[in-house]
């Protein structure tokens, strides 16, 4: 039986957006913690630690999100985790996010002038204190706009986890399309919902960028 | 107990994976060439048109950049036939790649164009260059030189994103990986192998794009300086 694409179908797709949003938030939290470690390691005084972090970033940025997803999915089940697909999906999204956030935040940390390190060291601050009171507050200002911009990439890439059966927006669209055979309407709707989520975030990122540059010349 | 890695059955199917990798390269190569051209053309068009007429390009860029590549692919492959445009999976994939990369390139090149200072254009005009010459040599060339590192990263990201084309059964690297997986049941080994192939492709591509940048905008020239400034 072919169903019409009507209100209930639309609501089903709209409701599935909660998984898209949940995955994004989980990836941002988990990936944020991991990415922060990567960024600090990337700015470490120890060369091997720096190289390790650089290797991690280069590796994650050279692997398709789809492969990260499959590796997490099959890897975790081999490691003996009997988990719902959402778990593997969150892990893969977090790993993906860590590679990009690590690089964004490394750039922010390194854009803080080296005199700031020197001055704070001269005040007998420990490395942790330097980060906590001097470097991170300044780096954060610089890091916020590109981080917000990356969230858009994250939202869009959660669509890929539809392949392991998580019923987020893209998968919900597929299911409804299979029942209604109105691909243009269905996927158009899905695209529109993604757009409604992503566009405000993009605009916010751009505004923050403008704000940050406002006080600067040249 | 304990998992035993068995790569032999996977390597026995390396011819299949190689074919997939070749299609990935083809899709990426053609897609990047035309996607970048589309982006440069649209950025130029946008730069030349009065502000009131810029909205069609801006709308295209915003629409593409704020929706997932996967959904764009699904609309083109499943949606277009309902309005009479029937494409094979490969054609749909290639169209999606070009449209997607086109939007990102437009945005990147636009930023480059806007970074060219007014005084540069005035200087060009005062040297009796024609408007076209100013546009070609003073605006576009420096703009692309400056954003070359950003463009290169976007090209590599696009190559990686072609893996999504397996969703509409285009037989590129990820799709052939799934085939080998269902033949051999060595899921983890297959995906490790294919991940390493992607990683290799990405590294080689980064290297080639850096060389291409160095050839187009040689070190020591004005354009070369712009290129290296931006990457720092």
From TrEMBL, chain A:
<feature type="transmembrane region" description="Helical">
    <location>
        <begin position="186"/>
        <end position="205"/>
    </location>
</feature>
<dbReference type="InterPro" id="IPR043429">
    <property type="entry name" value="ArtM/GltK/GlnP/TcyL/YhdX-like"/>
</dbReference>
<dbReference type="InterPro" id="IPR035906">
    <property type="entry name" value="MetI-like_sf"/>
</dbReference>
<feature type="transmembrane region" description="Helical">
    <location>
        <begin position="20"/>
        <end position="41"/>
    </location>
</feature>
<dbReference type="InterPro" id="IPR000515">
    <property type="entry name" value="MetI-like"/>
</dbReference>
<keyword id="KW-1003">Cell membrane</keyword>
<feature type="transmembrane region" description="Helical">
    <location>
        <begin position="53"/>
        <end position="74"/>
    </location>
</feature>
<keyword id="KW-1133">Transmembrane helix</keyword>
<dbReference type="InterPro" id="IPR010065">
    <property type="entry name" value="AA_ABC_transptr_permease_3TM"/>
</dbReference>
<feature type="transmembrane region" description="Helical">
    <location>
        <begin position="86"/>
        <end position="105"/>
    </location>
</feature>
<protein>
    <submittedName>
        <fullName>Amino acid ABC transporter permease</fullName>
    </submittedName>
</protein>
<keyword id="KW-0812">Transmembrane</keyword>
<dbReference type="Pfam" id="PF00528">
    <property type="entry name" value="BPD_transp_1"/>
</dbReference>
<comment type="similarity">
    <text>Belongs to the binding-protein-dependent transport system permease family. HisMQ subfamily.</text>
</comment>
<feature type="domain" description="ABC transmembrane type-1">
    <location>
        <begin position="17"/>
        <end position="205"/>
    </location>
</feature>
<keyword id="KW-0472">Membrane</keyword>
<keyword id="KW-0813">Transport</keyword>
UniProtKB/TrEMBL annotation, chain B:
<feature type="transmembrane region" description="Helical">
    <location>
        <begin position="69"/>
        <end position="87"/>
    </location>
</feature>
<feature type="domain" description="ABC transmembrane type-1">
    <location>
        <begin position="21"/>
        <end position="209"/>
    </location>
</feature>
<keyword id="KW-0812">Transmembrane</keyword>
<dbReference type="InterPro" id="IPR010065">
    <property type="entry name" value="AA_ABC_transptr_permease_3TM"/>
</dbReference>
<dbReference type="InterPro" id="IPR043429">
    <property type="entry name" value="ArtM/GltK/GlnP/TcyL/YhdX-like"/>
</dbReference>
<feature type="transmembrane region" description="Helical">
    <location>
        <begin position="20"/>
        <end position="48"/>
    </location>
</feature>
<keyword id="KW-0472">Membrane</keyword>
<dbReference type="InterPro" id="IPR000515">
    <property type="entry name" value="MetI-like"/>
</dbReference>
<keyword id="KW-1003">Cell membrane</keyword>
<dbReference type="InterPro" id="IPR035906">
    <property type="entry name" value="MetI-like_sf"/>
</dbReference>
<dbReference type="Pfam" id="PF00528">
    <property type="entry name" value="BPD_transp_1"/>
</dbReference>
<keyword id="KW-0813">Transport</keyword>
<protein>
    <submittedName>
        <fullName>Amino acid ABC transporter permease</fullName>
    </submittedName>
</protein>
<feature type="transmembrane region" description="Helical">
    <location>
        <begin position="190"/>
        <end position="217"/>
    </location>
</feature>
<comment type="similarity">
    <text>Belongs to the binding-protein-dependent transport system permease family. HisMQ subfamily.</text>
</comment>
<keyword id="KW-1133">Transmembrane helix</keyword>
């Amino acid at each position: 039986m072919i169903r019409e694409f009507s209100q209930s179908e639309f609501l089903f797709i709209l409701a599935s957006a909660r998984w898209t949003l949940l995955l994004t938030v989980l990836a941002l939290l988990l990936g944020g913690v991991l990415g922060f470690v990567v960024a600090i390691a990337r700015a470490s005084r120890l060369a091997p630690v720096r190289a390790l972090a650089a290797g991690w970033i280069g590796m994650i940025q050279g692997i398709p999100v789809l492969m990260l997803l499959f590796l997490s999915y099959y890897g975790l089940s081999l490691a003996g985790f009997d988990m719902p697909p959402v778990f593997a999906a969150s892990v893969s999204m977090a790993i993906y996010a860590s590679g990009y956030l690590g690089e964004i935040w490394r750039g922010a940390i390194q854009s803080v002038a080296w005199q700031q390190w020197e001055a704070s060291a001269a005040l007998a601050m420990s490395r942790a204190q330097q980060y906590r009171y001097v470097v991170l507050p300044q780096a954060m200002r610089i890091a916020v706009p590109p981080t917000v911009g990356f969230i858009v990439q994250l939202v869009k890439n959660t669509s890929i986890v539809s392949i392991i059966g998580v019923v987020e927006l893209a998968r919900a669209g597929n299911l409804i399309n299979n029942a209604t055979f109105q691909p243009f309407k269905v996927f158009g709707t899905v695209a529109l919902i993604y757009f409604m989520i992503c566009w405000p975030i993009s605009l916010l990122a751009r505004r923050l960028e403008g704000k940050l540059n406002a006080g600067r010349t040249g | 107990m304990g998992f035993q890695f068995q790569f032999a059955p996977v390597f026995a199917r390396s011819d299949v994976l190689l074919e997939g990798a070749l299609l990935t390269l083809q899709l990426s190569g053609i897609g990047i060439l035309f996607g970048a051209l589309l982006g440069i053309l649209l950025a130029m068009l946008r730069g030349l048109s009065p502000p009131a007429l810029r909205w069609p390009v801006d709308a295209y860029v915003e629409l593409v950049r704020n929706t997932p590549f996967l959904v764009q692919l699904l609309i083109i492959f499943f949606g277009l036939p309902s309005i009479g445009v029937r494409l094979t999976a490969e054609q749909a994939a290639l169209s999606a790649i070009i449209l997607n990369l086109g939007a990102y390139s437009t945005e990147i090149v636009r930023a480059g164009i806007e970074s060219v200072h007014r005084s540069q254009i005035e200087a060009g005009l005062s040297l009796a260059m024609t408007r076209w010459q100013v546009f070609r040599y003073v605006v576009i060339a420096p703009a692309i030189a400056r954003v070359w590192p950003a463009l290169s990263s976007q090209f590599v990201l696009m190559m990686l994103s072609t893996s999504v084309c397996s969703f509409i059964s285009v037989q590129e690297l990820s799709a052939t990986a799934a085939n080998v997986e269902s033949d051999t049941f060595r899921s983890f080994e297959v995906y490790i192998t294919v991940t390493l192939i992607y990683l290799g492709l990405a590294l080689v591509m980064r290297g080639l794009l850096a060389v291409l940048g160095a050839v187009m905008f040689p070190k020591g020239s004005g354009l070369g300086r712009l290129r290296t400034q931006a990457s720092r």
